[in-house]
Design brief:
CATH class: Mainly Alpha
Number of helices: 10
Structural class: mainly alpha
Shape: globular
Strand content: under 5%
CATH topology: Arp2/3 complex 21 kDa subunit ARPC3
CATH architecture: Orthogonal Bundle
């Protein structure tokens, strides 16, 4: 059995806490059919270093506990983030990696269809728009700037 290092546990906890806090800070626009989760920018950390993936999924789960949709968002939203970060960490190109949450937006569209009987396609398209803006437009810009700082990149890759 593989031992989990204290550093790994700390990284997971800190990543989860930051994701959750960033989501809750903008909670009026973080949940529902039109979502602008600034915290979703963080999923690109899994592209830089896969060690961030567990904390991102845990952070999403913790944030979704506070969702107006309750358990259904905990299940669907966390599954969406899990699928997204698993693909992000396997994708070499940052822009391509940033598209996975948008691609998997149908999971949230299905959630909204089940919870509210919202039109599946319309709901999915609205979620896709929010994911695309937050991650592909804003997130890739942020991470392009981060990549130019060798000290930050060295630290992010060191975990």
């Amino acid at each position: 059995m593989r031992k989990i290092k204290t550093e790994t546990i700390a990284l997971t906890g800190i990543t989860a806490a930051v994701y959750m806090a960033a989501t809750l800070a903008v909670s009026p626009i973080a949940y529902g059919s039109v979502q602008f989760r600034i915290s979703e920018i963080m999923v690109l950390l899994a592209w830089v270093n896969p060690a961030f993936a567990p904390g991102l999924v845990l952070g999403c789960a913790l944030a979704n506990i506070f969702s107006p949709l309750g358990i259904i968002d905990l299940l669907f939203g966390t599954f969406h983030t899990f699928c997204s970060v698993m693909m992000i960490k396997r994708t070499k190109n940052m822009v391509m990696a940033s598209l996975w949450p948008t691609i998997f937006s149908f999971i949230i569209g299905l959630e909204l269809y089940i919870a509210f009987d919202s039109p599946f396609i319309v709901s999915t398209l609205w979620v896709m728009l929010g994911e695309f803006i937050c991650i592909t437009l804003i997130g890739t810009l942020v991470f392009t700037l981060i990549r130019k700082n060798d000290a930050i990149m060295t630290k992010l890759k060191s975990y």
